[in-house]
Amino acid sequence: MMSAHRPAPICLWCFVMFLLAWHGSPSAAQSADYRIGARDLVELKVLEAPDFDQELRINDDGIANHPILGELRLGGRTRAEAITLITDALEERYLQKGRATVSLDVSEVRSRAINVIGAVKSPGELEFSGRWTLVEALTAAGGLTQSHGNIVYVIRRANGLTDQIEISLDDLLVRADPTVNLPLSANDLVNVPETIDVTLYCLGEVQSPGPLVFKSNERITLLTAIARAGGLTDRAARKIHIQRQDRSGRTEQIVVDYRAIVSGRQPDVELERGDVINVKQSFL
Q1: Burial of 21 (0-12, 13-18, 19+ CB in 10 A)
Q2: Sign of the CA dihedral with 204 first, then 207, 211, and 216 last
Q3: Are residues 161 and 187 in the same domain?
Q4: What is the pLDDT of residues 114-129, one digit of tens each?
Q5: By CB neighbour count within 10 A (0-12 exposed, 13-18 middle, 19+ buried), where does 117 fall?
């Protein structure tokens, strides 16, 4: 018998996600091989001449505009290469040879960002460290909101092609399946679609006729709709009519055999937003 005090799997996983957020992920921006990119923010310090200390944003052309040194083409360079370029500029015009002690840190990575949108608490651009996983990205975006659906999409662009990967949030967060916790790449887009209300109508010989509201992540079929409406009355006809508007605004009529669906001889009918189910009275 299961103990009443055993925590639900999702709670345990939320705790794991909290730990990930607390410890953070290692930044690759300070590694020797990281190349400064457009929109990165770098922090320059000159030990012998603090007047040159400056935070510099790299523009889309790879150039940082320093108020004293002028244009510095730092984009595409490693930190060591950028330090050499700045040191040469300082010693050529302002300081004696061998007297410039320069440090340069990448304080904000924007050139290799990933974006998280949709049903997360803090959607937007995230600094990409080179080691993000999907769970880490969702955690860094503040976690999921209550309006999230059951699916998350990772949209990836490479070599002019766009690839969309669909992942079940139950597999990712409840079952903690490591095979779906994808490593992310620079410029990936993570989309957590929000659920919306889907309204359709069930009229006629059902126990509770009227509008029915479903969530967009639910599977909405004729049988689930009739069950939501309390089931059929004893006077219900075997044939059920579904009215649906197509994209051009024209109304089409779908007639199905309820008993054939219940017995499995015909497939259940998928319903759409705005459908009207009309259960007529049997005259037999």
Answers
A1: middle
A2: negative
A3: yes
A4: 899 999 999 998 876 5
A5: middle
Least confident of 27-31, 124-128, 135-139, 189-193: 27-31
As for how many domains the chain has, the answer is 3
Q: Which domain holds residue 248?
A: 197-281
Q: Which of 130, 136, 104, 124 is nearest to 27 (CA)?
A: 130
- pTM of the predicted protein model: 0.52
Does residue 98 share a domain with residue 115?
no
Q: Tell me, what DSSP letter sits at residue 95?
A: S
Contact 206, 236 (CB under 8 A): yes
Neighbours of 42 (CB within 10 A): 22
Asked if residue 53 is part of any domain, the answer here is yes
Q: What is the CATH number of the domain that holds 232?
A: 3.10.560.10
State whether residue 206 is helix, strand or coil: strand
CB hemisphere CA count around 138 (13 angstroms): 28
Helix (H, G, I), strand (E, B) or coil at 205: coil
Residue 1 within a domain:
no
Q: How far apart are CA 284 and CA 272, in angstroms?
A: 31
- Residue that terminates a domain, selected from 108, 131, 146: 108
Three-state secondary structure string covering 212-251: EEEECCCCCEHHHHHHHCCCECCCEEEEEEEEEECCCCCE
Q: Which of 162, 192, 222 is the last residue of a domain?
A: 192
- The reply to whether 89 and 226 lie within a common domain is no
| 3-40 pLDDT, tens digit each | 333 333 433 344 344 333 333 333 556 677 788 888 88
